[in-house]
Amino acid sequence: MRLIAANWKMHKTVKETEEYIREFLKFVEHPESREILLCPPFTSLYVAGKLLEGSGVKLGAQNCYYEKQGAFTGEVSLPMLKEVGCEYVIIGHSERRYLFGENDELINKKLIACLEEGIRPILCVGEKLEDRETGMTFKVVETQVRLALSGLEEHTDGVDIAYEPVWAIGTGIPAMPEDAVSVHGFIKQLLNDINPKNKGKTRVLYGGSVKPENAGEYMKHSEIDGLLVGGASLNPETFAKIVYSF
């Protein structure tokens, strides 16, 4: 089933989350034909989980730490996320990589912890503008995928991947659908090389300036298994239009 995920980033208070979900559920009363995922900030996860119970809309977190507990001030563990109803967690988003210095080794540890805890990770990969301009897109993406999945080659069916070109995130300049399709096809072939038994079991999503006007153009391609939506997911009606754009 294709996955449409909302990454709210650092937006919405608990009260705003309640208002959003009550409104959003009016637009998605029958979500069975696709998987819908909301990823609010940590402070809103508990109330979001309660409001989404029985709706068919899934709950996810935007980040996690790989240890279950301990002296890690400011971090949130996977058992904590699981208890409030999270079934997914976004790992390695470019903002975590480039604003907060997360490296491939840390991302790999988080993926391992997610699979051990039974929460499905969405691994984010993507190139910067200078990588694209110098023809390094495939090399950057391959390196990120291989390092993140190191030691998990037999478990790739438990992971989803989001291709998010860094230059397209929050800029209003999305990748052309044919360019996204090319990278998605490359990732799927790479996954098949890493684990031939996995073929087709890992969804590859597109993210980067997705909006109602272009979502359908991406989703008409079989190589694209879903969308990871940022700014356009902050309005419930707008996000619902993206959800039902295909």
From TrEMBL:
It is found in: Cytoplasm. It catalyses: D-glyceraldehyde 3-phosphate = dihydroxyacetone phosphate. Pfam families: TIM (PF00121). GO terms for biological process: gluconeogenesis; glyceraldehyde-3-phosphate biosynthetic process; glycerol catabolic process; glycolytic process. One of its GO terms (cellular component) is cytosol. The active site is at H93 (electrophile), E164 (proton acceptor). Substrate binds at N7, W8, K9, G170, S209, G230, G231. It is an enzyme of class 5 (isomerase). Pathway: Carbohydrate degradation; glycolysis; D-glyceraldehyde 3-phosphate from glycerone phosphate: step 1/1; Carbohydrate biosynthesis; gluconeogenesis. Keywords: Cytoplasm, Gluconeogenesis, Glycolysis, Isomerase. One of its GO terms (molecular function) is triose-phosphate isomerase activity. Its EC number is 5.3.1.1. Homodimer. Belongs to the triosephosphate isomerase family. Involved in the gluconeogenesis. Catalyzes stereospecifically the conversion of dihydroxyacetone phosphate (DHAP) to D-glyceraldehyde-3-phosphate (G3P). This is Triosephosphate isomerase. The lineage of its organism: Bacteria, Pseudomonadati, Aquificota, Aquificia, Aquificales.
